[in-house]
Amino acid sequence: MSFRLTRHPSNPVMVPDLTSDWECYNVFNPSVIHHNGLFHMHYRAQGLDWVSRIGYAVSVDGVHWNRLRHPVLEPVDGTDSRGVEDARVTLIDGIFYMTYTAYGREFHGSGDPTIFGGGITPMIARSENLITWAPQRTDPLAPRAMGTARRCAERSLQQRQRRGGWHRLCLLWRRRPRDRSGDGELGRPARLRPLWLGASHLGVPN
């Protein structure tokens, strides 16, 4: 199956909130799923401290969004003190699973730390309502933190259902080279028959 995505004329559908201390600088890297007749977005945000947090917004049409005033996932210790980033959410057997990146000043793993020290680790969290998340900190998705060579890795949690009802979780890694055209990222498309809705961000250098 192939399809073509067309940018909606109402873009951007979300901008930084200048009245907020945690999302007044950047809102980007969205992930959207369609559940119970609504679109649910989880997005990365940065504010006055430049630390990344995960925000939540809900929409009836996928274009006009209402967001919570507080983040739904934020750093808790040294392993993610520089931010929690780039959420991807999937529903499996009535439970929502979020994969995200923990970027912190502390490095707990083999290999080399990042050029700034600390580590970058793929993590997973669970939720029953898309708002209250429980990070599974004793069971990260990778056994070690990533150094500089793997900084541009992208991971997503995908649902695969076969005849018979079983599921498989897939952790996908790929290098994402940066070039002069800027850095872009497309979240998991949400299907709303007969259309697919994709949320993305694209940065273009000056």
Task: Summarize this structure as a short list of keywords or feature phrases.
four-stranded antiparallel sheet; 206 residues; single chain; disordered C terminus; mainly beta; Tachylectin-2, Chain A
Task: Give a written overview of the molecule.
The chain has one domain (26-181): Tachylectin-2, Chain A, CATH 2.115.10.20. It has 206 residues and is mostly beta strands. It has a 4-stranded antiparallel β-sheet, with no helix packed on it. Strands 5-6-7-8 form a 4-stranded antiparallel β-sheet, with no helix packed on it. 30% of the residues are buried. It contains no helices and 14 strands. Mean pLDDT is 75; it is low at 142-206. β1 (26-35) and β2 (38-46) form a beta hairpin.
Summarize this structure briefly.
The protein contains no helices and 14 strands.
CATH class: Mainly Beta
Gross CATH architecture: 5 Propeller
Could you say how many structural domains there are in total?
A: 1
Structural class designation: mainly beta
Total count of helical runs of at least 4 residues:
0
CATH topology: Tachylectin-2, Chain A
What pattern of helices and strands is seen along the backbone? Answer: EEEEEEEEEEEEEE
Oligomer: single chain
Under CATH, the homologous superfamily reads Glycosyl hydrolase domain, family 43
First and last CA, distance: 36 Å
C-alpha Rg (nearest Å): 17 Å
Uncertain stretches of 5 or more adjacent residues: 142-206
Helix content: under 10%
Largest sheet: 4 strands, antiparallel
Question: How would you sum up the global shape?
Answer: globular
The chain-level mean pLDDT equals: 75
What is the strand tally?
14
Strand line-up in the sheet with most strands: 1-2-3-4
- Give the DSSP E fraction (strand runs of 2 or more residues): 35-45%
